[in-house]
């Protein structure tokens, strides 16, 4: 862990922290991570939650035991990002490729998802967390569709932060669907081809209305993005840790954010950090 400077007495950092509190009243970035300038807190963090099955097998349990403990890690991470003023947390929960897993594991995962939505509805509402799902929900079991629809509706007015689950999600399929919808609009005379730009494509994706991820975290050490938010992570910073997801708690998140804050985000150009600020770390 690095020994970055403490920003608690920096007027600029305090002002940044107050701006974060305006959008997330519960946030206290200086109190939680005093060594990270609030301007360096990511707006949107995306996570590939890998290693649940391995975590369980290392302990002699069935894979679903790992998924159950992974759900507990989700609760901790939601609290951690809320405390820091992160606007969006997107979690890769179930990919379109995951249907290839054993039927018993899939069934248990679907039941776990429905149970989680029901069990944590009050907590998300109490803390102002909006719930949102991206992916092909129409292919999910009815009990899951009902659970996620109900939780989305109940938390639709929440503004502190957004918890976005990528459920039955695959980025290539998402992009293909967006292209088809745009092509249909052109065919119907609603659009001219020269009106198609990056903003239109972004607005046609499942994540429309959300900022692109600033930070992509992958647990369990795998060095790939696994068909996840391919358009949206074009300029995201990547952070890979060997820690298995059930063991990745608030401390692991803080380490990832410290690493993010220490980097120079150039976006293909020059240093993106404020001119009067040295990178943390």
Question: Can you describe what's shown?
Answer:
- The chain is α/β, with parallel strands linked by helices and 281 residues long.
- The protein has two domains: 11-169 and 213-261, Decaprenyl diphosphate synthase-like (Undecaprenyl pyrophosphate synthetase, 3-Layer(aba) Sandwich), CATH 3.40.1180.10; 171-210, no CATH class.
- Helix content is 42%, strand content 13%.
- The chain has ten helices and six strands.
- A six-stranded parallel beta sheet has the order 3-4-2-1-5-6, sandwiched between helices.
- Strand 3 (129-134), helix 7 (142-154) and strand 4 (161-169) form a beta-alpha-beta unit.
- Helix 5 (103-119) packs parallel to helix 7 (142-154).
- It is globular.
- The protein starts with 10 loop residues before the first helix and ends in a 20-residue tail after the last helix.
- The relative contact order is 0.17.
List the helices and strands and how they pair.
Elements: H1 11-23, H2 29-32, E1 44-48, H3 52-58, H4 63-84, E2 88-95, H5 103-119, H6 121-126, E3 129-134, H7 142-154, E4 161-169, H8 171-187, H9 198-203, E5 215-218, E6 237-240, H10 250-261
Parallel strand pairs: 1-2, 1-5, 2-4, 3-4, 5-6
What's the gist of this structure?
The protein contains ten helices and six strands, in the order ααβααβααβαβααββα. It is of the alpha/beta class.
Considering the protein shown, what is the CATH homologous superfamily of the largest domain?
Answer: Decaprenyl diphosphate synthase-like
What is the number of helices? 10
What CATH first level of the largest domain would be assigned? Alpha Beta
Number of domains: 2
Largest sheet: 6 strands, parallel
Question: What would the principal axes of the Cα set say about the shape?
Answer: globular
Strand order of the largest sheet: 3-4-2-1-5-6
Number of strands: 6
Average the pLDDT over all residues and give the rounded result: 92
Secondary-structure element series:
HHEHHEHHEHEHHEEH
- Report the uncertain regions: 275-281
The name of the CATH architecture of the largest domain is 3-Layer(aba) Sandwich
CATH topology of the largest domain: Undecaprenyl pyrophosphate synthetase
Distance between the termini: 9 Å
Taken as a percent bin, the fraction of beta residues is 5-15%
Percentage of helical residues?
A: 40-55%
SS class: alpha/beta
């Amino acid at each position: 862990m690095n020994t970055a400077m403490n920003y608690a007495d920096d007027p600029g950092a305090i002002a940044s922290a107050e701006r974060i509190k305006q959008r997330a009243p519960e946030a206290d970035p200086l109190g939680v991570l005093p060594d990270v300038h609030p301007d360096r807190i990511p707006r949107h963090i995306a996570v590939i939650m890998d290693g649940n099955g391995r975590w369980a097998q290392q302990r002699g349990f069935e894979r679903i035991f790992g998924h159950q403990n992974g759900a507990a890690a989700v609760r901790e991470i939601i609290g951690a990002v809320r405390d820091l003023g992160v606007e969006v947390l997107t979690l890769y929960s179930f990919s379109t490729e995951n249907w290839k897993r054993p039927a018993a594991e899939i069934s248990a995962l679907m039941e776990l998802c429905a149970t989680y939505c029901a069990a944590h509805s009050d907590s998300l509402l109490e803390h102002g967390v909006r719930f949102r799902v991206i992916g092909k929900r129409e292919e999910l079991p009815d009990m899951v569709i009902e659970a996620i629809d109900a939780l989305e509706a109940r938390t639709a007015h929440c503004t502190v932060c957004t918890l976005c689950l990528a459920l039955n999600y695959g980025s290539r399929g998402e992009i293909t669907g967006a292209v088809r919808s745009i092509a249909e609009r052109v065919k119907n005379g609603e659009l001219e081809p020269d009106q198609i730009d990056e903003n239109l494509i972004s607005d046609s994706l499942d994540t429309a209305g959300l900022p692109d991820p600033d930070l992509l975290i992958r647990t369990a050490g795998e060095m790939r993005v696994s068909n996840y938010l391919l358009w949206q992570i074009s300029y995201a910073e990547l952070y890979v840790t060997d820690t298995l997801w059930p063991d990745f708690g608030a401390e692991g998140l803080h380490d990832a954010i410290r690493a993010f804050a220490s980097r120079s985000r150039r976006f293909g150009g020059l240093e993106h950090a404020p001119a009067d600020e040295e990178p943390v770390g």
